[in-house]
Each structure stands twice: as structure tokens, then as C-alpha cells.
Q: What sequence folds into this?
């Protein structure tokens, strides 16, 4: 639906999946974030000039229960109309949305993801693992465990000595 040539803009809560769909379609969006990653995604969309916020970002960052914009709206029908008019008439939004779409598609997108999954399925994932890093981390972990053991043992020795001193009195 978003890829249909007649779709010029849309409304989204800006969850990660929906945001990626809008970007992949090259369609500007009106952002109505509620919670989680949605406010951050909406900020990035506005920053890249591929969308507009319907509510203030400070409102979107509040707890979800405090942000029930459907029960206590912080926007009007006129706000929605004005924001969509801006998205549809300011060519900057269409242009930037298409630019971001091209940038994302040039990274390989779905084909790269499918190829990677197939490579791992048929060939395993060993080529993705940095064994030297894991060896180093295992050594560090071993040293950390040894240090922790030494600290605990020292504490127990000191505690036992203090206890003996108290009992001698």
C-alpha cells in the first residue's frame, strides 16, 4: 500500500517496523509516537526532514498512560490537516524521503538480509565469529573471576581475624 504511486504521505506511531516501511517506500510521514522507541524514531524522521510530529516530542516521551492522546488529545483536526498539507505541498519532504529511500536501498536491503540468512543456514555462522576476541574476553573473564575470588578470600580472612579479636576480649 505504501509503495502505491498514489500514496503521498501517511500517519504512523513510528515503531521500528512501520518506520522502515515508510522509508523503503520513500513516503513522508506524520509521526504520532506513544512509547518505547517511537519518540526516538520520530525525532530522527523529523531531523532528516522526511516527516512532521503531530504532538510535541516532550509529550511523546512521557509514560504511555500519561500520553493517551486519543482520550485527551493534544492536537485538533486542523493540526492534522495543516501537518498533512505541509507534507504534501513542501517538496522538501518528498525529495528527502526519496533520498533516504535510495540510501537505504543502496545498502543491499532485503537481498543482503536474505543472502546473509541463506549463507548462515547453508554454511554456518563460524565466519561471523571473532574467535580471537572471544579468547581475549575469556582470559579477561578468568582474570576478573580470580580477582573477585582473591577479594572475597581476603575479606573472609580479615573478617575471621576481627571476629577472633572480638572473642578474645
A:
Amino acid at each position: 500500500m505504501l509503495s502505491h504511486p498514489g500514496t503521498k504521505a501517511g500517519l504512523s506511531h513510528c515503531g521500528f517496523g512501520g518506520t522502515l516501511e515508510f522509508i523503503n517506500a520513500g513516503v513522508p510521514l506524520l509521526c504520532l509516537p506513544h512509547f518505547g522507541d517511537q519518540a526516538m524514531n520520530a525525532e530522527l524522521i523529523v531531523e532528516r526532514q522526511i516527516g512532521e510530529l503531530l504532538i510535541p516530542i516532550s509529550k511523546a516521551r512521557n509514560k504511555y498512560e500519561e500520553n493517551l492522546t486519543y482520550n485527551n488529545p493534544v492536537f485538533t483536526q486542523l493540526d492534522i490537516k495543516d501537518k498533512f498539507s505541509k507534507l504534501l505541498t513542501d517538496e522538501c519532504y518528498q525529495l528527502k524521503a526519496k533520498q533516504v529511500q535510495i540510501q537505504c536501498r543502496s545498502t543491499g536491503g532485503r537481498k543482503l538480509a536474505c543472502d546473509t540468512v541463506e549463507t548462515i543456514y547453508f554454511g554456518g555462522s563460524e565466519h561471523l565469529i571473532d574467535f580471537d576476541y572471544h579468547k581475549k574476553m575469556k582470559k579477561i573473564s578468568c582474570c576478573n573471576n580470580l580477582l573477585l575470588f582473591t577479594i572475597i578470600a581476603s575479606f573472609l580472612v580479615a573478617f575471621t581475624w576481627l571476629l577472633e579479636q572480638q572473642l578474645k576480649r
